[in-house]
Structure formats: C-alpha cells, structure tokens
Amino acid sequence: AAAARRATWRGTMAGFVGSTQRREWLFETQADIDAVRNKAREVYLAKSTSEREPLSPSAEAGFLNLYLALMRKLCTRKDLNPCLTEAKYSQRVYLSAAALFKRFYLKHSVMAVNPKLMSSVAIFVASKVVE
Question: Is the CA virtual torsion 103, 108, 109, 115 positive or negative?
Fold first, then answer.
C-alpha cells in the first residue's frame, strides 16, 4: 500500500512538472515577474493608439496596490456586505480575489483594462468560488 501511495505521489509530481500551472504561474525571482509584466506593457503600447502619455511601470504597480487595498476594505466591511458573517469567509474571498486580480494584471496592462472593473469582477468570481 505504501509503494502504491509513493507511485501515485510521484505521478502527481511528474504531472505538475509538465503542467501549465507550473509553466505559467510559478516564477523563480521577482525579475521573472517583472519581465512578464513588462512584456504585457509593451504589447499594450504597441497596440495603443492613445495620445496620452503612458503610465510608468511604477505607476502601474501603484494602481494595482491601491486597488488591492480597496478590495480588502470592500471584502471586510460588513455594512456593505451583510452576508459576510464570518471574518474567515471574507478573508478567503479577499485572498482569492487578490490572486485572480494579480494573475490578470500579470498578463495585461493596467492601461488596457480598468482596475476598478477588474477588482469588482475578481471579488464577484472569488465569492462564487469560495461559496
């Protein structure tokens, strides 16, 4: 029985090593993450026809951090959401929403999609997933 469990575990790990989860979402360093973000930014700038000056990478990161903080407040305010009776539930919703939000903006520029819209979508989807 122990040998069968070890074989199953090895098969699972082998499946993970070749998975899209590992390939697309696990990074060795912060520089790897920054490279993916810069690529998304360059793709947006290449397609953009806007006359406005583009945001700097640090300004984009600032917007993401601002909306993450707003999402946290929104997920934990019981006067806005009376369904949240447990702090543990609201924390799970926030953490799931933050993961979705961060993953989305890893591959898309803040200038391409409004973070206000995406924060609402992330909270909605996360609440459905946690439910």
Answer: negative
Tell me the pLDDT tens digit for each residue of 23-45: 788 888 999 999 999 999 999 99
pLDDT digits (tens, 9 = 90+) for 61-87: 999 999 999 999 888 776 655 555 566
Instruction: Choose among 25, 33, 36: nearest CA to 108.
Output: 36
Of residues 76, 79, 124, the one with CA closest to residue 97: 124
Torsion sign, CA atoms 103, 114, 110, 90: negative
DSSP state, 74?
A: H
Structure tokens at 124: 């909605």
